[in-house]
Amino acid sequence: MAGGADRFGVCAADPCRAPYLDRTRAGRQRFCCELCNNRAAAAAYRSRTRRS
Ligand SMILES: [Zn+2]
After folding, report:
1. Which domain, by its residues, includes 30?
2. Is 47 helix (H, G, I), strand (E, B) or coil?
3. Measured in angstroms, how far is the CA atom of residue 42 from the centroid of ligand 1?
4. Which of 11, 35, 38, 45: disulfide with 18, CB 3.0–4.6 Å?
């Protein structure tokens, strides 16, 4: 079973929390799908650029 290290995780996007299977070689996946990834990126961008 060489190189078949499947990794399971839980989507980091709130309130999704769906379990996903990380199939990236680096194991950097944090979201269940592209949609959550984009949504979280947009939210991070917004909070980073928001004015007080
Ligand atoms: Zn998700």
Report:
1. 7-49
2. helix
3. 14
4. 11
